[in-house]
Amino acid sequence: MKLRVVAAILVAVSLGVVAATAQAGGQRVTANKLTVWLQVDAQSGWPEVVAAANQQFQQQNPGWTVDVQYQNWGDHLQKFDATIAGNDTPDVIEMGNTEMTKYMAAGAFADLTSAKSQFSNSSSWLSGLAKSASYGGKTFGVPYYAGSRVITYRSDLFKKAGIKKAPTSMKQFQADLVKVGKMQKKVKGFSPLYVGGEDWYTALSFVFDYGGSIATTHKGKWIGTLDSPRSVAGLTAFKNFFKATQSKSTATLDGTSPFPYTVFSQGLTAANYGPAWYSCCTGAKYKTATAQFVMPSHVAGKSMPGFLGGSDLAVPAQSGSKTQAIQWLADFTSTSNERSLQAKGNIPNATNLLGASVNERAAAQSWFVPQAKHWVDVENGNILKTMLAQILTGRLTVKQAASVASDNIAQTLNES
Questions:
Q1: What does DSSP say about strands 33-39 and 92-96: parallel, antiparallel, or unpaired?
Q2: CATH no. for residue 406?
Q3: pTM higher than 0.85
C-alpha cells in the first residue's frame, strides 16, 4: 500500500476511535446490532457453526442481534478500506492470515491483549496463526482456523483406472492422472486434476518442494528469489504438471476459472488440490466416492509442502461495540465450535485440538508467505497470478516471468 494510503487509514482510524469513544451510547450501541464480516467459506461450509455462535451470543446478550454479512476474498479488503474511510466498519472481521500485518501496523484493529484469556485454548493457539495475529508484542486477532492443502479425488475413477493406492511420488501421481484422463477422454472439458491456471498456492508448493522460496531479506531489504535456480526448477515442474493434467476448455488464465469443487461436482475432474474442506462441496452424486490423500513430493516417499493458510478474526478499532464483539469472538471460537470446524476438514486453532486427519498430516510439511507488512499488496497486485499467466501461455519463459515477478515483489515489499 502506498504511504499516503496508509496515512489516510491511520487518520481515519484515529478519528474513528475518538468518535467511538465520544459516542459510546450512539446509534450502533443503541441499535443493539453486532455487524460481523465473514468470508463465504463459512456460509457454504459451516453455516451451523455461525448459527450456534449467534444463538449463544444472543442468549448472553438479550436484545442484541447479529448481522453476519458474507464477503468474497477478492474484494473484501477494498470494501474494508472504504468502511474505515467512512467511519463505518463492521464490529468483527475475518482476515486471511497473510492480510493481518498491514492493518495491525496501521492501527486498524483493537488491542485484544487484555481479553486473550476469554478465548478458549488461547494458551495453545497454533503458532503460525498466533504470530499472524500479533504485532509489536500485542494481540490484535483471534485465530479462527487453519488449512493445509490436500488432494481430494474420486476414488471410483481411480479404481476404474486400476489405481489401487495413493501415489508416493509426483511422477507416479502425474502418470496416474494421465491414465485417468485417457479413460475419460470422451467427457468434454474433463481435467484429470483441476487447479485453475492462476492458483499460485499450488504453483508455489512446487517451488518449495524443489527447495525454492519467494523472497528473503538481506541487510534490511527484501530480495525476490523466485528466479533462483531451485525456484525456477519448481515453476518448470508446475508448468509441465499443469500442461499434462489440465483441460484447455476448463481452466482459464483470466481470473474467471470456476471453483475447483464446482468442477468436481460437475463430473469434470478426478481430483483437486486445495483446502481439505473442499470435500464438503463435491456434490451429492460423488459424496461416497470422495476421498483424500497428501500431495506427494517429487522426491519419492515424501509429501509436497503445502500452503498453511488460515484466517484470523479481529475487532476494528472504530467499532463502538468492542465488548460485545469480544464476547461473540469467544462464542464463535469456543472448543465445541472449533471441533465442528475440524469435522468439516479444517485444522482447529489450537495444538491441543489437533488430530490425525489427512489435512493435519499434510500440515506437517508446509510453507508460508514472507511475513512482511506489504505482502498483502503483492497479492492484491496480482504479481503471482500475472507470472503464472505469462508462464502457462508461453508469453515469457519460466526464467523471464520469474525474474519480473521477483523484481516486482522486492519493490513492493520494500515500500515505505
A1: parallel
A2: 3.40.190.10
A3: no
